Fold this protein.
Amino acid sequence: MTKELEAPLGAGALSDELRRRQEEAGADYEVSLESLSQWQLAWRKFRRHRLALVGMGILGLFVAIAIVGPFFMPFAFDEIPDPKVITYAGNPPSLTEEPFGVHPFGETGGLQRDVFLLVVNGARTSLLIGFSSMLIGVIIGTVVGSIAGYLGGFIDNLLMRIVDVMLSLPTLFVILVVARFFKDAKDNVWSIILVFGVFSWMGVSRLVRSLFLSIREREFVEAAKAVGVRDRRIIFRHILPNAFSPIIVVATLIVAGNIIGEAFVSFLGFGVNPVNPTWGNILSNSLTYLLVGNWWWPLFPGLAIILTVLAVNFIGDGLRDAFDPRTRA
Amino acid sequence: MAKYVIRRLIQAIPVVIGITVVTYGIMLLAPGGPEQRFANNPKMSNEARLKFIKAWGLDQPIPIQYCRWMGLCDPDGEGLALLRANGVPNVFPEALGGGDNGVLHGQLGFSIDSGEPVGSRIGRAALPTAILAGFALIIWVGIALLMGVLSAVRRYSFFDQAATVFAYIGFAMPTFWLGIMLVFLFGVQLDLLPISGMIDIKAGSPAFGSEKYWPYFAEDPGRALLDIGRHLILPVTTLVVVNIAGDSRFVRASMLEALSQDYVRTAKAKGLPGRVVTFKHALRNALLPVVTNIGLEIPFLFTGAIVTETIYSWPGIGKLTIDSIRSFDYTILMGVLMITAIIVVLANLLADILYALVDPRIKY
Amino acid sequence: MTATLQGAAVRGAPPARDVLLDVRDLRTYFHVLDGTVPAVDGVSFDLKRGETLGIVGESGSGKSVTALTVMRLLDIPPAEIVEGSEIWFDGREILSLPIDEVRLIRGKDMAMIFQEPLTSLNPVFTVGDQISEQVMLHLKVKRREGLERAIESLRLVGINSPERRVKQYPHELSGGMRQRVMIAMALSCEPKLLIADEPTTALDVTIQAQILELLKLIQQRTGSALMLITHDLGVVAEMVDHVVVMYAGEIVEQGTVHEVLLEPRAPYTMGLLESIPTVEKRGGRLSAIQGVVPSPFNLPPACRFQPRCPYAWERCSSVIPALNTVASSGRLARCHLHASEGAGRLPAALEHHRRAMAVGRGVAAQSAES
């Protein structure tokens, strides 16, 4: 706009004056806009969100512990070194060698295992279950939602009825029942992941479907079609990128929910076989010993769960704000 | 309005049918199907076992099994047998000449463990759960509303910040863990509150709901109520904390949204006092999405009840569920699943109706 | 929430009896994340009983904020009404009143109608409820009478079958009718001052005319003063006695409607009027004021219009222009051209403006250079 400046003003002196001043002023005339892509904008906003960064930190810490933790531990979680003092209820946390030995989180009752080791080892499986089941759920949900939203009509109706049925079932109940079927298998981590995944996709599918419905009607899709762009391309280039942000936010909720869900199912004894510790199955049996005073056994794994879920929730909040076009970068 | 309700009920039918299919399907998946369990159950006589197999059609192909279980097919007939020998569709009530088997006739079978009819077993467990869930619902909704509205009105105040911290932590807490910790704190350490069951056996109270209980209750209602009340405190707290945490944030957000609307500015411009503006104009609008949300969350009370009843040995449907899962008591499980799923459908319907009633913009 | 202004110790004297609203050196600043926005920066005007004042400006000029400040409808943080501002209404200085007393005035002696009638009405209450609530509050009547008065005010604003309408919800009415309801609501307690913030902007053109007619009629009947805020010069021409032109938070011109619209003396106003396409300008280029409204965080050092002004010179970027009296009249324009230092340049500028008004800028340029 500054460039095309023909002399619109009458008297020559005035127009020269104006032109000169505009050239001098330059940037004062226009607000210069940095043009950022949606992702860059989101990253900027995310960075400002202090809680989300804290969440990333905590989660990162736990992931690191999960991956390398067990290697740094003096002994495996299921080795039982001679307990210094044999007690029925397990020994409380102690940082000194005497009298109980170094057990920062104490010992469990019964087998007197070291709780700290259990928590560190449990991180791996718990996090694995949380994230993998989320991935499964998101993939199924996206596929189902895309098909329903894009094709519409009878298929849409059918799929959504199925979603309604699945949502009407008390999820935890059904998960428990199905998980029970796999309980006796030795290495049932992936069965559990599958079970949780299969029950996590409904929300995502509804979300994706509504996105498809709203975007399908928009002009730029019509324009693309008019030019002859094929359906598949429309889906991938135009519609799905818009769907990423809300899906990511929902995904964090799913992770949080599944970590807690797995913990409960394992606590009841229907979940992952104790051969693979998870924060949940560590807790099974702890109720009995709680009644004789062992508070540290349930406390620490529980705190681990709470911190992880908090972290994931913070990240989810940060992501939500980051992708919300109304918040300023 | 009536038309709307009927229409929604009709729409719910395919969903309910779907639920029955899923329920049956799950049972089919189960290792060691119903017949095997029966076969190994010493409490069942051979005669009863054969009757059971026949009634459920366990020697027939799967679609027929499903059909008989539902009560559409005549177990005395051959194959699909939708019609009885007398020509009346089996699905009709017995009084009209129809059959007497299956879910549609109220026959949910017998518990594999105890032999008790499923219906009556569930019925026995229903009252304790209803008491627990009922109190929980009132406290949950009440506190969530209070906290949410106060947080919104006094945004960024100390109360709001404290409530936010509470909400975040509460939301991240596994319900069962909270229960365990509460058991420890109040039951073991401080020994203040009872942590198991509904009534105080040591004080001489008979089991809740048993025949001896009601006369005991009538003798001194105050004592009995107090007893139940004391036992309710921890389970209800465990059950509601997570819900309150989540909902109070939702109420707050909804309230803030309402407060930022133009009509609030108009209300102020009319000279209305602040309290009227907040509680009449804004709150009424903020409640709309909250009502729906709560309606949709009622089914989660059942899920929560499973957790809570297990930890506190509360003799309700949740505990029944867990026990049945442990012992693969299919008939009970299927009965519970069906009933809770249908309650969920009804709760959703209720939420929709409530919303339509409360928002004048909805046409029905 | 709003609070009393502290220590309004140094206060001027009350205005003359026939002046209903006297705004003196009003400054309303907003404190936001990126800095402070001087939304209203030293605005003064007055309004006599029964008169109509038009406040004209584009978005961001501060006209709505002025109205909201008069009604004390701003949330005090982030807003701040700077010390030294005074607003006299009906003989009282209202910025120093406690909010409880302001509420007694709001809705009763001074009322406001807003731009978007659909969102300004509460969707869950009937129209009748919303009107009668105000009446019941201020006039202390019971429910039945409140409802009757509501029906009466609906009739007053030209809504047919008001007894039926009174039970309807806002979403059941058309846009024009909703605005009538807003007007009815504002008038229900017979206010002395009616503030209308872009009352017709959200409406169809035909409805616009009706609503403006209605406002005029009602004003004549009730004798209330009207403060009309708009960006539409056509509306201004029709409705008002006096005009205040605002730009970037300041008043740049003030005078009677004839003076300001027919013989504008501030460059901004001139630019506005020049950009109105008329038949005479056929064949020329559509002209607009060059440049954009400055960002409130990055205001020009002295005259805020300077970067866009065709007549500006060095003085304009170094010395802040005051509202100078334009020679031979009582009106004011914020421009150095009307001060002694600019007197020499004034005739050329006026001539340029006259030409541009006559034949459009492009043509004027061509003819000047040929």
Notes: Residues 221-259 of chain B form the longest helix (39 residues). Chain B touches chain C through 21 residues (CB under 8 Å). The two ends of chain B are 6 Å apart (CA to CA). Chain B has a mean pLDDT of 82.
